[in-house]
Amino acid sequence: MIAAGVFLVAVPIAFNVAFARLAATFDYPDVLHHPTHEVLAKFTAGGRALVLTWWAFAMTALLMVPLVVLTSDAYDATALTTTVGVLAAAVQLLGLIRWPFLVPYLAEHAGDPATDIH
C-alpha cells in the first residue's frame, strides 16, 4: 500500500510539472487554438527541450497504469476499475504521444514545397 501512496502523490505532481512547463514554454493548451503554421513554427522553435517535455507529459499517462493497478484492490469492482483505469491511461498516452512523434515531422516539412498538399 506504500507504493500506491507514493504513486498517488508522484503521478499528479509529475503531470502538473510537465503541464506547467508546456504552458510556460509552448503556451499549451491555448496554442491549440492558433493556426497550424503558427503551432508548428512554435514547436520547431521549442527544439529538443520541447520534445522532451512532451515525452515527459506523455509518460505521466503510463504512470497511471501502475497507479490504477495498485489502487484497484481498494474497490469491489476490481476488474472494472482496473480495465477503465488502464484504458484511460492508454487513451491519454495516444493523445499525447503524437507530439514527440508526429509533430516534429510535420514541423520539419511544413515549409517544404515538395510536401505541400495545397
UniProtKB/TrEMBL annotation:
Alphabetized Pfam families for the sequence: DUF4386
Read off the InterPro entries from this record.
DUF4386
Q: Which UniProt keywords apply?
A: Membrane, Transmembrane, Transmembrane helix
**Source organism superkingdom:** Bacteria
Membrane-traversing stretches: 49-70, 77-97
How is this protein named in the record? DUF4386 family protein
